[in-house]
Amino acid sequence: MMALFEKLVNIDSNSYDQAGVNKISSILQKEFEEIGLKVIVHREKKFGNHLSITSSNSIKPKILIIAHMDTVFPKGESSKRPFQIIGDKAYGPGVNDEKASHVQVLYAMKALKHYGLASFHNVHILFNSDEEIGSPSSKTLIKEAAEGKEYCLVVECGRPNEGVVTSRKGVGSFKMSVTGKSAHAGVEPEIGRSAIEEIAYKIIKLHQLNKIEKGLTVNVGLIKGGTSANTVSPDAEAVIDVRVANKEQAEDVVKEIYSIAEEETIKGTETKIEGQISRPPMEMTKESQELFERVKQTGKELGLHLHGEATGGASDASFTASEGVPTIDGMGPVGEFSHSETDEYTNIQSLIERTALLAKTIESLTKKEMEEQQ
């Protein structure tokens, strides 16, 4: 496990590094084919290839497992700080998010095959190449894979103190652009129409939409505009990040953002808005709660005391949850500080524990399904 782990971490696989991601996918394809699984390569022109993995004997597997092969780190990062072990932790670019999970999924499947379990044939594994940038080329593939599934286990990194993720916020991104009229700020400012002033009013209103206690956040994180200090600005732009706790919140906040865009405080300016909620919220449903209880019980059998956590971060779990598939995320090995250039780590012992958890959860869910069919 550690040899493969090191090999994967020492290959750069930024979302836009197609060659790097394809090196990862080629290694994984070979590893999964060697244990008798069928791998379909979904080739992409812009991003890396996606892998769809099932047993040759499976007809309609009911369990979907999702992991992503891309990282946020630029090409050359693995040469600067290659995989290393310090104490009980592994370090390196993408070690926690989420190359440990690739190893986990492979060895969970190896365990099921080793014991000759029928659950080996009840799994559909999807490795995608573009999760870190919103899954633009794999979103449709994920939704198609979710069809007919009864459960989805997403192996984003597990949380410290034996946590898994039971809900995630939905995520949206919007760009607001204001057009005004330029003029000399000292000679004839009265004929100008300041786009910066107009967008400033709008930014204040946007931030007033925040309801942090209810899980709604609206943040203008980037602004730009104007041409020079002594010119009334003819243009301005703001990029807005939105996080929502549920679908109703998403619908309401989108209407409010567009309403603010339509308001005109500085006469003679024009505002355009574009964007959407790109990842729906992963909400805890009755069915997801039942799935979590089964995962929790399985963990207990392994000596783990799992608890569920909500997070504001995004993952592909949102897509399966929005398709009505009971989904639990954070099933991967435990670590912290994903995307950090220095601190990201994976706890090595958790790699073993979470591999056992994944394998036994697959077996438990398969037994449940077989019992219900009798």
Automatic annotation (TrEMBL):
A Pfam family that the UniProt record links to this protein: M20_dimer
Domain named Peptidase M20 dimerisation: residues: 167-267
Keyword Zinc belongs to the record: yes
Active site (catalytic residues): 70, 131
Alphabetical UniProt keywords: Carboxypeptidase, Hydrolase, Metal-binding, Protease, Zinc
Cofactor(s) it depends on: Zn(2+)
Gene3D superfamilies assigned to the protein according to its UniProt record, in alphabetical order: 3.30.70.360, Zn peptidases
MF term (GO), any: metal ion binding
Cross-referenced InterPro entries: ArgE/DapE_CS, Bact_exopeptidase_dim_dom, Pept_M20_glutamate_carboxypep, Peptidase_M20, Peptidase_M20_dimer, Peptidase_M20A
Name this protein carries in UniProt: Carboxypeptidase
